[in-house]
Amino acid sequence: MAGILLSHTEKVYITHGVKNEYRSDGRSNIDYRPMELETDVVSHASGSARLRLANTDILVGVKTEIDVPKPDKPGLGKIEFFVDCSANATPEFEGRGGEQLANSISNIMLRAYQSAQAFNLKQLCIFEGKQCWKLYIDILVTLCRIGEKCVVDPTAEEESCSLVSLIVGVTGNPKYYNDYEDEEELPAFEAKCSVISMHGPGSVSPQNLRDAINQGIIAAVCLDEALGKTLFRERRDTEQFKRHSYGFLK
């Protein structure tokens, strides 16, 4: 990370701490820092959310339009991702740096959501071969390897000790994101990896890769459950009481 200068002793301290499942800020290797999630923050979008995690601020907006299905996929809808890395966030996002990162994230998201287990595009079909919904998702997930261990949500200091980052996409539990009147209608759920991507000059052995993927799935399931329960509770409260909008773009 630019601007982070650590001595060899500091890097050894961080690396040994990660090895023993104890990070410098007290978290375990699969713990995230406290985060804030706000929904329905953009009035002109079909759906939106804002996530704040430490110094990271992400705004996601979803817009919809009716389109024509692809000839080879007449029963599926469409989904597109556009990522913008603000140059105001860090000097690393200036010029080509931000553009390359944005394209990389967009491609990873597109690959992740091509899996029907991550998102079933059949839900977006209106009239097979004729009409479908097209989702435009505007945005603005990672494991860092430190030594022989991996951590989620790395700090800037931890990233400076890492030679390779592993991005693991994990399918979410449908019971949190679908409206089922009867719980027996819920399909059997098992979290699965939907996409993997590595960045950085380092390498990962096959065993470390398997361990990292399993660790990513465990962390993602815990996060998915916490967010899912929060969103479910919000939907329930919204149905019972008229909530006043106060989002940061309203």
TrEMBL record:
Gene expressing this chain: LOC112052509
Protein name: Ribosomal RNA-processing protein 42
CDD domains from the UniProt entry: RNase_PH_RRP42
Keywords: Cytoplasm, Exonuclease, Exosome, Hydrolase, Nuclease
Domain Exoribonuclease phosphorolytic, residue spans: 32-142
The organism's place on the tree of life at top rank: Eukaryota
Keyword Cytoplasm annotated: yes
Localization annotation: Cytoplasm; Nucleus, Nucleolus
PANTHER family the record matches: EXOSOME COMPLEX COMPONENT RRP42, EXOSOME COMPLEX EXONUCLEASE RIBOSOMAL RNA PROCESSING PROTEIN
Lineage of the organism: Eukaryota, Metazoa, Ecdysozoa, Arthropoda, Hexapoda
Organism of origin: Bicyclus anynana (Squinting bush brown butterfly)
Entry's Gene Ontology molecular function annotations: exonuclease activity
Family indicated by similarity: Belongs to the RNase PH family.
